[in-house]
Amino acid sequence: MKIRNIILILSLIVLGCKDEFLLDSKTYESLMVVDGLITNEEGPYMVKISRSLPVNHLEKIPYENCIVTLIENTGTTEILTEIEPGKYMTSESGIKGVIGNEYSISIYTPEGKEYHSAFQELKELVDLDSVYAESTKLIDIDYPFGLPGYQFYINTKTAPTQENYFLWSMTETFEYDIDHELAYVETRFGDYLYNNPRYDTLITCWRTQNVNYIFTGTTSKLSIPQIAHQPLHFVGTDTKKLTKGYSALIQQYTIGENAYNYWQGIEEQSSNENLLVSSQPYTIKGNIENINNDEEIVLGYFTVASVSQKRIFVEKSYDPFYYNACLIITDILAISDHKKKFPAPYFWVKVDDGAFGITDKHCIDCRNEGGNLEKPEFWIDQ
Amino acid sequence: MKSTIFIFCLFFFIILTNSLLGQEKEKNIYVKTQSLNWDDFSKYIEIENNVRFFYNRDSIPNIEILVKNDSALLEQVLKESFSTFGIKVSKDGRGNYFLFKDFSIHRDLDNLFIKDQQDQAAEDGIVYKADGEYLKTYQDFISESLVIDSNGSGNKNKKVLLSGYVTNFSDGSTIPQARLKINETNTNVITNLFGYYEIQIKPGNYTLTANSLGMYERNYKLTIISNGRLNIPLKTKSFLIDEAVVSATRNHNVRSTTMGFEKITAKAIKELPVVLGEPDIVKVALLLPGVQTIGEVSSGFNVRGSPADQNMFYINDLPIYNSSHLFGLYTTFNSDAINGFEFYKSNIPIEYGGHLSSIFDIEAKKGNTENFSARGGIGPLSSRMLVEGPIQKDSSSSYLISFRSTYSDWLLNQIDNIEIKNSAASFYDALMNFSFGLTKKDNVELFLYGSNDYADLAFGIRNNYTNLGASLKWTHVFNKKLISELDVVKSQYYYDMENYEIAYIGYKNSFELNHNEAKLKFNYYLNDKQAFQFGINAKFYDLNYGDFLPLNEESTIKPIEFESEKAISSSIFISDKWDISNKISIEGGIRATYYSYLGPKTIFTYEENAPRDINNITDTVKYGNNKSISDNINFDFRIAGKYEINPDFSIKASYNTLHQYIFMLSNTVSVTPTSKWKLSDPHLEPMKGKQYSLGFYKNFWNDKIETSVELYYKEVENQVEYKDGADFLTNQYPETAVIQGDIKAYGIEIMLRKKIGKINGWVNYTYSKAEVTALNPLTGEMNNQGHAYPTNYDRPHAANLALNYKATKRISISMNVVYSTGRPVTYPTSIYYQNGIQITGFSGRNEYRLPDYFRTDLSINIEGNLKKSKFAHSSWSIGFYNLTARKNPYSIVFQNEDGEIKGYKISILGTIIPSINYNLKFGNYEN
């Protein structure tokens, strides 16, 4: 999320506001989507072929039974194996990405359509120099006085050549606890269980996920081929992410100019929050073409990149948090209502003022918030 | 006659009884401020004050009786009201009032009447009787009797010359284009640019009617004996008299050949509700049919399906390239300093060329030639000041200086937040208008204008944009048939921007547009049926794109140099307006333009029939300074005709073609002040526009109600559209970033307007469509897969209501209601995944729409004491913008929240916004 919100100031002056509304897209065209990546890292490499989905339709539609061929400019080709519906993978002993070589793919669908991509060079690796975070506040229409959090930055090493194009992505891992400390559990026999190991193990979780933003940059317009203080993602206190410990794995992909133009367009459209200079959204075509019909739109990109990555840990935030915690019922009448409606056990938690209240079952199991109970191997306690 | 005799008998009876019963002490009756017609007034006063009125209903017109002061003596009020009708008023001291029209029998009673005629000797020996005081009435009733005679006697059959000036009663300024009519002979005369007129007429008795836009009509009963001079002061329809909001000269809409035309006076602008306390001409224009905008914070507006760069603002002939403050919240024209504006959206006058859609011709006020006066206003965001006066006493030269500035900076500082405190937003605008009446035949006007906006929004962008300009206008009257006007104009639009969002790519860039223009035009009135306009016009454009530079040491941006561009366009034009008969008029014009794109410049040649891309460059040619790189000659045509079925119903049709050589490059949805302009060059053809329109105009109730229906069909060729995803900021090859496409637009506009009365205003409805196709079949370059798409401002249904209610003499209430279909937007319609990240796919361009737009504004104007002679006059205006607090979405944004795409409507001014404005005027305060 880029910090580019001129409009917010204006909105503050002129009392703007933001309201959610239901997306009601009537037109939806199911298009072929190609998502492939070849890097200088050890394979195997994966090419995923699917169809685009209606908005907020989470079930993926794989494109099965295609013949996917990876072609190296040295003449080597390899047919990928469909290991899962729509997921095509190179073999352990197959093509390895070599810097300086060029790669393309071709796809034959069961319907007999033929697609291909142009050759792209695997660019020379430019290493990440450093990854760091700064504590700051993000002004947003929802947080006119600023949402505290961390802004992540990277520096690259100075590249050996002038024109370099980068794509950065982030994978985040964070530790968190359930919202309220469990005091005791009231069983259906009316017993009060304290320090029950069955529940005590559900307090702390770790969750790993992709940050749903991508970032791009280039040295082609710079006088020195080095990127310094490139802002990436901002993590705020509007979620639980910064309550205990947070780590981000930052991957830097060195890509070609065409791939950069594609990803830069994607970045632009996904961070289009500046109303005053909001550019016209459009369908961004990738680099896969139907050989017999150049009007068919194929989404996605077969990306060839060299990769450098770094992990960073940040400590928890001491600023106020703004997420919605689980509800606690403290009112006696409401508790008796609750007990009439729902069977035991009841989970009693301590409220800030020292009183006790009942909370829902899903609130005492951190896994309900997407994490799992095992601490990742790389995790360093903060 | 019987009733008159009866009244007289009664009258004598009363006199008799009065004298018999002895003199009772006279009772003075005071009446309070009000305005009623005579019938109501007399009934009311009779009941309230136990008095009786005696008069003959047939001879006393039912005029409106206006009591201006807090309270006034009844007798005085009656005398003032009726004196101009030759009606005399007397009373008997017992509550009986007598009103008589000139009746010889009264001579005996002369001592009962007070002579109230203030005779005024006028120039050249005419007898001139002024109508003592203001009178609220429907004009037709007023009539003054005059004798025009310089020699005392004349030849009855030889024509004599009646001449003079039509002037503004309040400030003595002359009124051009005022209409004079001798009713008996049906002679019509229009005053020249200096307000001068001449009428050749045989001696005799006539009635002369004089009127002009925004002025009260004035009638004279003339007894013309020999040559004579009659200066006619007309009174402004000021707030003392509640009449017309918006008006062109009477019957204008039906009788003229003009279509798609509006003339709005300063008064109308001020009477409409305002946002944040400032009257605003663009906000008024947006209430007219066929005018649309993208939203609250978009600079510029859209007329009949055209993008904003196809409109042009002229203020006193000076072109203004950026017309908005604070990203479109305000207009850069202080309405205090404006006389009004003329707005052409269909048949643009031939003297203008170069903008396809509309001309906004703003007339700045001329200074008062009689007295010094000053006014000012304080509003929530800005305050303004204006001074004017004669340059030399008793000369026709004057000055006017106005200044307006904001204190939004101060407001931002009050907000307790560091980022906001570090933001800054400010603006000012200023104008100066000097008018020199050199001789009776020459007038020179020097006009200076400047406006500036500065915005530093603490999030990384700093903008500073400025308009500067000067115009010099010399008008010369050769004779009553030929008038010339020479304009020399220099206008500059300049901005610089600094972007410090991301330090290592922080940059600064500037842009400068210079528009120099000279125009010489002649108006030739062949006879009362035919008028010609012809002239020459040269424009010189010089656009400097500045360099793209690193902002500071932290930035490692490589500087990029941009070449500037120059072009000259020279035109000759002629038009003829011809009233073929009482019913049929036609108007035609032709404008030939030679356009030449000049060096120094590097021109790239691209492979033929291949997309324009730096990889397809085949040749590079450098041209020397002022060398013509490409040129062309184009002809613009205007044809319009009117057929008058009867005096209040006409049909008109028009066709016109235009060319435009300069356009704005913008890939954003709304127009921003930092969009750059670009000249037509060897790669980019000039834009061509044509428009057909047909209109029906019908007036009702003696022209009090005007209605019209206008249909149009419009095409724009070579419309410059940004290629999807293209970047212009660092692009040295702008032709690679654009496609030339077409716009097709059509619509119907229905307007109903009530010009006068306690309640006046208008309501209109427009149905329209505007679509763009951006496809180059030769190169395969296209937007939206080559399919037509609605423009960003395509709002098929639009309805506006503007109402004004004069509640009392001091309080007026006005209201707007605006409805339109929501503007088109591009929606997210699909999702897909790349490298584990969810990506949003979009619908076809502008395939969806925002919810409908609806807004109601209300404002209340409260005038201070209405005494005309008061030294200072103050008024308050209280406004409520968006009274229903409807959250009209300006835009929508989509956010991906943990894999779920959520849509948010962003509304600006999405709540009721009250404002209060205090205005103070010193000296004359009309308007």
Description:
- The complex is a heterodimer of chains A (382) and B (927).
- Chain A has 382 residues and is mainly β.
- Chain A has a domain at 6-18 and 28-122 and 259-305.
- Chain A has helices at 6-14, 197-200, 257-270, 332-341; strands spanning 17-21, 32-39, 46-51, 53-54, 61-62, 67-72, 77-79, 81-84, 87-89, 102-108, 114-117, 120-121, 128-138, 147-156, 165-177, 182-186, 192-193, 204-210, 215-218, 230-236, 245-255, 288-290, 299-315, 328-329, 346-350, 356-359.
- The model of chain A is unreliable at 1-15 (pLDDT under 50).
- Chain B is built from eight helices and 62 strands.
- Chain B has a 22-stranded antiparallel beta barrel.
- The two termini of chain B are 45 Å apart.
- In chain B, a hairpin with a 7-residue loop joins β27 and β28 (398-406).
- Helix content of chain B is 7%, strand content 53%.
- Chain B is mainly β.
Layout: helices, strands, pairs:
The complex is a heterodimer of chains A (382) and B (927).
Chain A: H1 6-14, E1 17-21, E2 32-39, E3 46-51, E4 53-54, E5 61-62, E6 67-72, E7 77-79, E8 81-84, E9 87-89, E10 102-108, E11 114-117, E12 120-121, E13 128-138, E14 147-156, E15 165-177, E16 182-186, E17 192-193, H2 197-200, E18 204-210, E19 215-218, E20 230-236, E21 245-255, H3 257-270, E22 288-290, E23 299-315, E24 328-329, H4 332-341, E25 346-350, E26 356-359
Parallel strand pairs in A: 2-23
Antiparallel strand pairs in A: 2-3, 3-5, 3-9, 6-7, 6-10, 8-9, 10-11, 10-12, 11-22, 13-14, 14-20, 15-18, 15-19, 15-21, 16-17, 16-25, 21-23, 24-26, 25-26
Chain B: H1 2-21, E1 30-37, H2 38-49, E2 52-54, E3 64-73, H3 74-82, E4 87-91, E5 96-101, E6 119-121, E7 127-129, E8 144-148, E9 160-168, E10 179-182, E11 187-190, E12 196-201, E13 204-211, E14 218-224, E15 228-229, E16 232-234, H4 252-255, E17 261-265, H5 266-271, H6 281-285, E18 291-292, E19 302-303, E20 311-315, E21 318-320, E22 324-325, E23 330-331, E24 338-344, E25 358-364, E26 373-378, E27 382-390, E28 398-406, H7 408-414, H8 418-421, E29 424-439, E30 442-456, E31 461-479, E32 482-499, E33 507-525, E34 530-544, E35 547-550, E36 560-561, E37 565-579, E38 584-598, E39 601-606, E40 617-623, E41 628-646, E42 649-660, E43 662-665, E44 676-679, E45 687-700, E46 705-722, E47 738-754, E48 759-773, E49 775-776, E50 781-782, E51 789-790, E52 797-806, E53 811-820, E54 824-825, E55 828-834, E56 837-842, E57 848-849, E58 853-863, E59 872-881, E60 889-897, E61 900-907, E62 913-922
Parallel strand pairs in B: 2-5, 8-14, 9-15, 9-16, 20-25
Antiparallel strand pairs in B: 1-3, 4-5, 6-7, 9-12, 10-11, 10-13, 13-14, 17-24, 18-19, 20-21, 22-23, 24-25, 26-27, 26-62, 27-28, 28-29, 29-30, 30-31, 31-32, 32-33, 33-34, 33-35, 34-37, 35-36, 37-38, 38-41, 39-40, 41-42, 42-45, 43-44, 45-46, 46-47, 47-48, 48-51, 48-52, 49-50, 52-53, 53-58, 54-57, 55-56, ...
